Amino acid sequence: xxxxxxxxxxxxxxxxxxxxxxxxxxxxxxxxxxxxxxxxxxxxxxxxxxxxxxxxxxxxxxxxxxxxxxxxxxxxxxxxxxxxxxxxxxxxxxxxxxxxxxxxxxxxxxxxxxxxxxxxxxxxxxxxxxxxxxxxxxxxxxxxxxxxxxxxxxxxxxxxxxxxxxxxxxxxxxxxxxxxxxxxxxxxxxxxx
Length: 193
Hints:
By secondary structure, the chain is α+β, with helices and mostly antiparallel strands. It has one domain (13-178). It is 59% helix and 13% strand. The protein has helices at 34-44, 49-76, 101-127, 136-155, 164-167, 170-192; strands spanning 15-23, 26-31, 81-86, 91-95. The protein has a four-stranded mixed β-sheet, with helices on one face. It is elongated, with a radius of gyration of 21 Å. Residues 1-9 have low confidence and may be disordered.
C-alpha cells in the first residue's frame, strides 16, 4: 500500500508512523488529516474547548479500538498483522490473508465486537451511577457509548468497504456447516443400518 498520496497538491496529507507504537508487532500510522476531526469537534463544542478535545480523543480512540479488535482476532488466529492505520474518519487493519473464509469473517467481526464490548461496559458504568453524565468524565463516557455503537452499526452495513460486507457471510457459512453436519449424520445413520 502506498501511504503517500500521489496527488502533488495533497502531499501534506499522508500517514505518519507513531514511533515505538506497535499493535501485535505491527506499526501504527496516523493520517495527518486527523486534524480535521479535531476542527470538527471544536466547531461543535465552540463554547468548551476541553469537551471538544475530550470528544476528539474519544472518537480517535474508538476508531483505534475498532482496528485493534481486528488485529486482536487476526493475531489470535495466527495471522500476521502488518499495519494499523487511523485516519480522520476511519481506520484500516492490514493483516495476512486468512486460509479460509471463516477466519476472514471472524476478523471482520473483531472490530465491531470490540466496540460493542466497550460501549456496554461504559453504559454499565453510567447505569450503575459509578460515573455521572453531568461530570466532565461522564460526558466523555456517554459519548464513548454513543460513538462506539454508531461506528459499529455503520461498519456492519453490508456494503463494499465496510466490515458488514464480509461479517454477514457468517449466516450462510453457519447454515452450510449445519447442512454439512446433517448430511454427514444421515450418511453415518445409513451406514449403521
